[in-house]
Structures are given as structure tokens and as C-alpha cells.
Amino acid sequence: MKTEVTIQGLSASLNPARTARKIIGFVPTMGNLHEGHLNLVREARKLCDVVVVSIFVNPIQFGPNEDFENYPRTLEQDSHLLADAGCDIIFAPSVEQMYGSQPRLTNISVGKITDDLCGKSRPGHFDGVAVVVTKLFNIVQPNYAFFGQKDYQQLAVIRQLVRDLNLPLEVIGVPITRAADGLALSSRNGYLSTEERQLAPSIYQSLKNAELELQQGQALSQVLDHVKSQLTQAGLVVEYVEARTPELQAVHEFNQSLVLFVAAKLGNTRLIDNLQVNYSH
């Protein structure tokens, strides 16, 4: 496995694969990897001849009071995990390598689907994601790119971006990887205290309860309120509990398959999760 830190180095490493028309798979990450990331790499390994993983903490997707400076950077540990999971090339560029020394004058905004859910409390976040992902797609030029469904809104934004800009690749969403107690794996789980970590699975439990209540015929608005009260009672500060269609359109009753979304804070740590609920009447 190679680690490349420059765009030129990565291109040189990928040239033989391109010449041989091999299938290139790409997993973009910010490092501090966990089993969820490694599952993306394993999925890429199944479909692709060459698997590239980027490790880049992207400054332009962090808000002014967010954890860019403190975000864990664990390249050596990540490299060992990636070698075992079947990665061929790590691309670990510096901020200057990605953004240069001149000011960036081009922005990329995906409208509408970035206005609410996480977009509401994190203005500019999805623009930062859209810019860095477009840059990475142009640098790596993969056939397939793999993203986790835990960041469901991000996945929808990237699918929209690829479709709108005719980017020549296919985006593949990979189901959420969960701990044994149901907590969605996330790099931010590392910020939780022991006590908070014991409370965190209540998010998934409340989503599973909501699925059951919907399938028993309870009204959607009532079910969403119930999730909020369950989480508040468990000690979380709820940012939102929402239902959307799989394409992130608003939905007011359970008359089609939908996705339930939660964002809540436990201490200083912001956690998100979602659950797809199938409609089968």
C-alpha cells in the first residue's frame, strides 16, 4: 500500500491502473477511522480493482465554533487499519496541496436539500463538502465512490452534485455500521465520556421504537414528538427529529417509505442518526 501526499504523486500512482482500464474505487474520509469507514473500503474492494482512500480534514466544512483544530488526526493508526481492509493507495494531502496559496473564488452550492436538517445549524457546511468532494473526484477520477448512509443528507447532496454536474462516476451508499448496542459508529463518539457513551444508544432505540409505532398505525407527527420526548428524558438536547422521503422531500404522513432523522447533543458532542422505514400497505 502506498501513501501519496501530492496530487502529482497520486496521478503517477494511478496512471498504470487507468492505462489498463482498471476499475478505481474511492472512499473519501477525514481520517480517525473506525469500523464504519473500513466497511466502505471492504465494499469498494468487492467492486473495484484499485481502492483509493483519502484522508483530509477539510477546513472549509467546519463552522467557526466547530472542532477543526481538535479533530483527531491519526494517520499512522489509520494506515494500519486501511492496509488490513484492502486499501491500495492512501491520499493524504495538506491543506495547501488541496487549496493552494491563492484565495479560492469558486464555490459549489447544492440548493434546497441543504437548507434544513444539518444545513440549518451548520450554514456553509454542505458548500464546504461539495467543494472538497468535487475537487477529490477530479483528482482521483474514480469509477465508483463510496459513502456511508449515516451522513444521509451528505450522501443525498453528493448524489445531486454528481447528477447535476454530469460527473462521470457512480456514488454508492453503504448501510450504517453500528456498535453492538446500536450506536451509529462515528469519529465523534470518541468525544463521549463513559457515562455519555452509555446514554448514546437511546438515539437508535428511539428510532426503532418510532418504526414500530408507525407500522402499528400511529400518526407521524405523534411518533416524532414521542422520539423527542424519549431523547430529552434520556438527557440529550434534541436539535431536530424529522421525517423525509428518501430524496429528502418533506413528508407529513406515513403513506410511503421514509427516512427518520435525528440530531442531538450529548454533553458537547453532536450525534446524528437515521433510520429508513419501509411502507408496505
From TrEMBL:
Catalysed reaction equations from the record: (R)-pantoate + beta-alanine + ATP = (R)-pantothenate + AMP + diphosphate + H(+)
EC nos: 6.3.2.1
InterPro entries the UniProt entry points to: Cyt_trans-like, Pantoate_ligase, Pantoate_ligase_C, Rossmann-like_a/b/a_fold
Residues that hold ATP according to the record: 30-37, 148-151, 185-188
Presence of the UniProt keyword Transport in the record: no
SUPFAM superfamilies reported for this sequence: Nucleotidylyl transferase
GO molecular function, one term: ATP binding
Gene Ontology BP terms: pantothenate biosynthetic process
Residues binding (R)-pantoate, per UniProt: 61, 154
Record carries keyword Transport: no
Oligomer status and interactors: Homodimer.
Further remark: The reaction proceeds by a bi uni uni bi ping pong mechanism.
Binding positions for beta-alanine per the UniProt entry: 61
Chief subcellular location: cytoplasm
The protein's role, per its UniProt record: Catalyzes the condensation of pantoate with beta-alanine in an ATP-dependent reaction via a pantoyl-adenylate intermediate.
Pathways per UniProt: Cofactor biosynthesis; (R)-pantothenate biosynthesis; (R)-pantothenate from (R)-pantoate and beta-alanine: step 1/1
Keywords: ATP-binding, Cytoplasm, Ligase, Nucleotide-binding, Pantothenate biosynthesis
Subcellular location: Cytoplasm
Gene Ontology cellular-component terms listed: cytosol
Location of the active site: 37 (proton donor)
Organism in which the protein naturally occurs: Acinetobacter radioresistens
One Pfam family recorded for the sequence: Pantoate_ligase
Protein name (Swiss-Prot/TrEMBL): Pantothenate synthetase
UniProt record similarity statement: Belongs to the pantothenate synthetase family.
